[in-house]
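Human: Not sure, check this?
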Amino acid sequence: MARTVVLPRDIEKRLDNLALLSEEVDGVLFYRQRGEYCPIDSLFMLGIGSEGHVRPQTDRVEVANEFFERNPDYRYVMFHTHTIGTIRKHGNYFARNFSQQDIDEFRRQIGFDANYIGMLVTPETKLLYGIDNPSLVTVESLSGYQRGSSNVNTELHRIARELGCNLENFRATGGGL
């Protein structure tokens, strides 16, 4: 059965803002699967850079990995952007489609984890890639979303403090941790 990623409107807006930056961004969307539904609790940025050259910051990856170690009921959707600058430079095709590099990386990740979901965010669309062809739905609000989001963000900050990582040093105008 295909999974459905359920995206709260406020996180959708933050993703939309990230796609308007000149630099590309990648990160994770945290969720706890409920049947076929994957309701997103939080957004956590990992890296920022130019098209094709977004490199996750090691300390932020360590924070995310420690979060998953401590919270095995959580999974993630890995997202990245194709920005206006990328589309201007490489063509409108990339405003509505994955690049071959995206598809190759998604397939590689699925080889490690059949539950993997990748997401592309552009100024025009959001696309998902997964072994079961997941779908995306945006909702105004989710039951328990604020509590889940707060719990995830509190835990991420706690882990960052324990690891000596300052999450405030990483900023993109699209918002998010």
Q: What stands out?
A: Residues 4-169 form a domain with the Cytidine Deaminase; domain 2 fold (CATH 3.40.140.10). The first helix runs from residue 9 to 19.
